[in-house]
Write a structure and sequence with these properties.
heterodimer; A: two-stranded antiparallel ribbon; 9 helices; globular; B: mainly alpha; 80% helix
C-alpha cells in the first residue's frame, strides 16, 4: 500500500502524468470523501457540490502538496475545510431568516428522497444535529467511519486527548437525548414506544 | 460501562441511512476527468476565428465590388441613353447647320 502511495505521489507531481494520476485519486477516494461530507451536510446535492469543490481545490493545490502527509489525510483535510466553509456560508445566507442552519438541514433531510433510514436513524440524525459542528465532525468520523484518533489528529489538527474527550461527551449527550425521548430500540429495524 | 451507556446508539447501528442516485460515483469520476483534463488548443482551432473573419471581409468585398460594377454599368447606360435622348430632340437640319459652322466652314476658310 505504501509503495502504491509513493508511486501515485510521484506521478501526481510529474506534469506529464498528473492528469491520469489525479483521475485515479478521484476514483480511489471519491466515495470515502463523499460520505464524510454527506454526514455533515446531509443533502445529496450539497454533498455533490462540496465534493466537486474538494477535488477542484486538490487539483489546483497539487503543486503545493509535498507528500509529507498521506494523500487520504490531505484530501480529508480539504474536504473538511470545504464542508465547514459550506456550512458557514449557509449560516450567513440564512441569517436574516432567524432560522438555525441545523433546523434547515433537518427539514431538508426529512424531505430528502435519498434518505433511506427508519425512524430511529432519523432520530439519531436529529440528535447529532444538536452537537456543535466540530463535535459533530468528530462523532461522525469515529462512530460511522471508525477513523483512529491519530488519523483524526492529522486531519483536524486537534490533539488525540481533546478528540477523545470530544467524542466521549458527544456519545453521552446523544445517549441522553435518545433516552429522554423514551424510545426503546430492539433492533435497527424496529421501534417500540415505552410507557 | 461503555457498552451499557452506548445501548441506544448500538441498537440503532452504525450504518449510514443515506442513498445516492444510480451510477452516481461512475458519473462523478467521469465529470471530474472532463473538468481537469483541459485539452491543449490546436493551432487550427486558434486560427479558425481569424479565418472566419477573413472570409467575412472577402465576402463583403466581393459583394460590394459586384454592386459597384452594376452601378457603373447602369451609369454608362444612363449616359448613353441620355445622348440618344438629346439627339432625338434635335432637328436634322439644325444638326447639319451646326456641323457646317463648326467643322466645314473653318476648313474652307483656310483654303
Amino acid at each position: 500500500m505504501l509503495q502504491n502511495e509513493d508511486d501515485l505521489l510521484s506521478r501526481l507531481t510529474d506534469s506529464n502524468t498528473k492528469g491520469k494520476a489525479f483521475s485515479e485519486v478521484v476514483r480511489l477516494y471519491q466515495e470515502r470523501l463523499y460520505w464524510h461530507i454527506r454526514k455533515m451536510v446531509l443533502s445529496h446535492d450539497d454533498a455533490n457540490d462540496v465534493l466537486q469543490n474538494t477535488f477542484m481545490k486538490a487539483w489546483s493545490g497539487l503543486s503545493n502538496f509535498r507528500g509529507d502527509a498521506k494523500i487520504s489525510s490531505w484530501l480529508y483535510k480539504i474536504a473538511t475545510n470545504e464542508t465547514m466553509t459550506f456550512l458557514a456560508n449557509k449560516r450567513m445566507r440564512n441569517i436574516s431568516s432567524m432560522e438555525d442552519v441545523e433546523n434547515i438541514l433537518l427539514n431538508q433531510l426529512k424531505a430528502d428522497t435519498y434518505f433511506c433510514g427508519n425512524e430511529a436513524e432519523m432520530k439519531l440524525q436529529e440528535a447529532i444535529l444538536t452537537l456543535p459542528e466540530k463535535q459533530r465532525l468528530v462523532f461522525n468520523m469515529k462512530y460511522f467511519d471508525s477513523i483512529t484518533y491519530e488519523e483524526m489528529e492529522k486531519i483536524l489538527g486537534t490533539s488525540v486527548g481533546a478528540l477523545k474527550a470530544s467524542y466521549h461527551h458527544a456519545v453521552k449527550k446523544l445517549e441522553k437525548i435518545l433516552s429522554d425521548e423514551s424510545y426503546q430500540y430492539s433492533s435497527a429495524s424496529e421501534l417500540k414506544v415505552s410507557e | 460501562m461503555e457498552k451499557n451507556s452506548n445501548k441506544n446508539l448500538d441498537s440503532i447501528g452504525g450504518n449510514l441511512p443515506f442513498d445516492v442516485p444510480k451510477d452516481y460515483f461512475e458519473n462523478f469520476a467521469l465529470e471530474m476527468d472532463a473538468k481537469i483534463n483541459v485539452k491543449p488548443v490546436s493551432f487550427k482551432r486558434l486560427l479558425s476565428p481569424w479565418m472566419y473573419l477573413t472570409a467575412m471581409f472577402v465576402g463583403l468585398f466581393l459583394i460590394t465590388n459586384i454592386f459597384y460594377n452594376i452601378h457603373l454599368q447602369n451609369k454608362t447606360i444612363d449616359s448613353e441613353m441620355y445622348d440618344y435622348y438629346v439627339l432625338s430632340q434635335i432637328d436634322q437640319t439644325i444638326l447639319l447647320d451646326y456641323y457646317n459652322i463648326e467643322h466645314i466652314e473653318p476648313l474652307v476658310a483656310e483654303d
